[in-house]
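Anyone have tokens for LuxR C-terminal-related transcriptional regulator? Sequence:
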Amino acid sequence: METGPDAPASRIAASEHARTVAEQTDRHALTLESVLAALRADRLSDAAARAEAVEIASAALVELRTVTDRQRSTLLEPVTGAFSRLRADLRPLVRFGDLDVQFVEPPATGRALPGDVAHSARAIVRTAVLALVDDGVARRVRIQWDCDGRNLLMQLRDDGAGTLDTHDDAVRPIAERVVALDGTMRVDSTPGWGSTLDISLPLDPAPGAVDLPDDSGLTERERDVLRLVVTGVGNREIAEGLGISPNTVKYHVANLLRKHGARTRAELAARGVRP
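Reply: yep, here.
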């Protein structure tokens, strides 16, 4: 067990690496499934099927080459934009597979998602849909996202055998990923009628992610701003994420600098991170 000063950092790095590998594995699996769906589509000629498969593979290759940069730059993402990207991820299966995927759009006024939550949410849904495809029983799945201001709420409902639970091999990896994000998941199944997965992912860091003593004298809003400053986002992104104006963010940041005795945002972020 690591006990040196670098132990927390190494565990965080290992966790981030595992998350990235898991997400890329899901993307590769989805790409291969989509290519196979196109090649097996009865209504496409051989030439058309090959052309579609090449297009899917090419798009996936471009996505693979740019995903790291996008993950680094996408610090906050509108919930509608994140959902649109999910639809794009699943489009090949919708067009050429046997699964009818129905999408229920989230409200446009929903709070912006932190980049890691948006990426993880899409990965969770992709994993769930691939599990349904592998099962071969379900013919329809309904995907719905919503946001209550503090959590991203996702629901997946299928018309399969209705025998899923959190202990199934297909569901366990999803549950583990949700728990790792401090989220919750409930599985309700009715034999012969299908299963429903209700997933909630928090949009803010778990308590203790930022070192804020009880006597710090910060308001609740200042705490919200500080948690986002620590992640490195700018005033505009903070304003969008919290639903306040950039000028209000500037006011809170100025107060935080004064209260922490910091001269720059970098110093403020460094003092706000728990050792």
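The two ends are 18 Å apart (CA to CA).
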